[in-house]
Known about the structure:
Largest sheet: 10 strands, mixed
Structural class: alpha/beta
Number of helices: 15
Distance between the termini: 49 Å
Shape: globular
Low-confidence stretches: 7-11, 416-424
Number of strands: 12
Strand content: 5-15%
Strand order of the largest sheet: 7-6-5-4-3-2-1-8-9-10
Order of helices and strands: EHEHEHEHHEHEHHEHEEHEHHHHEEH
Amino acid sequence: MPRSLPMLTSVPLRGFPLDPPDQRDTSWRPSYAVWEVTLRCDLACIHCSSRAGRARADELSTPEALDLIAQMAGLGVDEVILIGGEAHLRPDWLTLIRAIRGAGMRCLQVTGGRRFSAQRALEAQDAGLQSVSVSVDGLRPTHDALRGRHGSYDTALEAIAHVRAAGMQVTANTQIGRTNVHEIPALFDRLLDAGIAAWQPQITVPMGRAADHPDLLLQPYQMLDVVPMLARIKATAEARGVLLWPGNNVGYFGPHEAELRDSLPACHRGSCGAGRAVLGIESNGDIKGCPSLPSAEYVGGNIRQNRLVELWQRSRVLGFTRNRSSRDLWGHCQSCYYAEECVGGCSWTAHSTLGRPGNNPYCHHRALGLLRAGRRERIERRAAPRGTPFDLGEFELIEEPWPPGEQPPPHAVAPTGRSQPSSA
Length: 424
């Protein structure tokens, strides 16, 4: 069905306060940058946080984009991930890939797969693109409904084949929500058969179009099912030599954390890395600590006004996690055993759900603790979003007793595994 697309008109550059030059923070370097090179898209996904469809009116020109690439290399970025919209709909897409690789950085792309033809895959490989992650969000009927276009499942699987044939690494990513959660094991089997090298699941977050459709969203208590399910899939992935890399908002802690994230140095996710290891770039040159964060609250500057190194080192908005501690937490996160280590988990998920970071209800450890007390949490939407990219609705978090007959026994949702315990 048709989706409404926001009218993206040119907006005058805002003023962004920066710390004085003698107070710059040089303690952190972004190891990777996620760059929305355009908001133009040929899909209209009902869970799209950025409401992609039309290009922004003020997207960076080719010379501006090439200068930004040089600035990223100068800042020490190792890897650039191109996203959209749909990155390959930008006419100078291959030019940007060549420039990224020429500057000594790795270059990857995330795509919905439509129009990622065999020819396009070969051109991308020739330009230096090294890996492509194709978004696949369910079996055919579910994926097509979520992506807003009949046939998008088939074109996504075809894109995986084209990338493999071109000799590039191909991976997949999946958003998990209420409409597709029951299909995830079968979907992963399809992706294995398609030949992916890695898979990244994450949960759908109430931002943008996803906030228009609260029926798409998992309830927090459903993490009791989702995390053990991913742990079972992880065993299958290991047996097939496929890396399962849970997204930053699948977390944190609980009895399966170490097995899900055993590829990380400490075998657990740790706190939000926005503005420390991660750099997010919008197609008009706005800079955030993470590409998923709400723009209104987290844009720390624009490269048309300041050099990237100045924004990275002098914008407190951009580096908002650098001095965060458990004192900044609230709700159940404030008294959590893992508060000092986790520091509220994913800022994107917490802020999009409850209007500010520091209290993330989508936590397996938390859901298990509530279950032992006979309680659970759920969200209800109280106000719809405005209809602009990266916008938010208003949601209320409700803690309540489990309804009669619905409460699962703790052993059914937290089987003993090789991970750490869910509490001290």
